[in-house]
Amino acid sequence: MGGVVPERTAEAVSRARAAIAEHARLVDDFPAPGIAFKDLTPVLADPEGLSTIVTALTHGCSSIDLVAGIDARGFLLGGAVARELEVGVLAVRKGGKLPPPVLAVDYSLEYGQATLEIPANGLNLSGSRVLLVDDVLATGGTAVAAAELLHRAGAQVVGVAVIMELAGLGGRDTIARGLGPDVPVHAVASD
How far apart are CA 51 and CA 96, in angstroms? Predict the structure, then answer.
């Protein structure tokens, strides 16, 4: 793995937080009344914002073999982070998006059920050390489900990196219960 210099990534975290503060858009009553949604789309559309966020997501990473990006914004971020770390990327897809055969895991969301999938053939993930990447950490259920899916494929999730953590929703605790307290969770910013 190349490219991870702690001083460089720490500086990127600071610059990424400034980009989020400058460009993120707050949308009241979305997706439901009473919720204030922080839209990161303008941050990622800004070249400096995207660049610093990608580098910031690598902060603290070491000995990673693969980046797994969670459908859909995690794909965008995961590919860029993998390039920065000089490793491959795997898309963890929502159910029904991949041709069979697939490995799948069903999990509960606060508003229903969902499925995540990865290809069952053509990948040898056995023994791979994986960084799981997504845009937002809310309740943590999706990250734990993705990690379970990767574990079934023989991989080990050794870290979770997100742009924004919604700290009041307990996602970090859910990940600690599901993956163990030693799996680091890196959030560039929290809200």
Answer: 32
Active-site option among 17, 73, 84, 165: 73
- 156 is in which domain, residue-wise? 6-190
Catalytic annotation present for 165: no
Q: Is the pTM of this model over 0.85?
A: yes
Question: Which CATH number does the domain housing residue 95 bear?
Answer: 3.40.50.2020
- Residue 99, C-beta contacts closer than 8 angstroms, at least 6 positions apart: none
Within a domain: 146: yes
Confirm whether 11 is domain-assigned.
yes
**Do the domain assignments include residue 155?**
yes
- Residue environment code for 32-64, b if the CB has 16+ CB neighbours within 10 A, otherwise e: eeeeeebebeebbeeeebbbbbbbbbbbbbeeb
Dig out the tokens for 52 from the structure.
């610093």
User: For 148, phi and psi rounded to 5 degrees?
Assistant: -60, -45
Q: Which of 7, 15, 84, 110 is catalytic?
A: 110
Domain count of the fold of the chain: 1
22 is catalytic: no
Q: Tell me the C-alpha distance between 6 and 161, whole Å.
A: 15
Q: How many CB atoms lie within 10 A of CB 27?
A: 11
Dump pLDDT digits (tens) for 118-151: 999 999 999 999 999 999 999 999 999 999 999 9
Reading the block at residue 149, the tokens are 């899916």
